[in-house]
Amino acid sequence: MAMQPAAVRSANALYLQDGVAGTSLGKLNVPPDKMAGRCITMVSPNYPLTAGEPPSAALVVVRVVIWKSGSVSPLRVISGPPLLEGEAMNTVRLWRYKPYTRDGEALDVTTDIRVDFDPAKPGGTVTHPHN
Length: 131
Fold this sequence. Notes:
The chain is mostly beta strands. It has helices spanning 32-36, 82-92; strands spanning 6-10, 13-17, 28-29, 39-43, 58-66, 72-79, 96-97, 100-102, 105-107, 109-117, 126-127.
């Protein structure tokens, strides 16, 4: 019988561990609100042109790895309209973060990122929210 991973909380973070002496199954899982304040470069998504109904505001949530370097690798879409999933993944690849550190050491982390689609805002706009 396989052992289920155990969730272990530590200092506002979550590790997944199996039953073998704390062997890690993944990256440090950091809450989205904690990582949002570390974002230094954001790019707004392009709203895809569609025939038919006019586009409306929408939200896509992408689970990502933010590496020690601050670069982002999307893993998968958690929620949102299927039509916007590809653009959401392409957009977050361009975002950059201050590395998450613990005890002075930069760590790779997993978190969820909200990608807000607003057809009234131009896509491709670069901002530096917490620089």
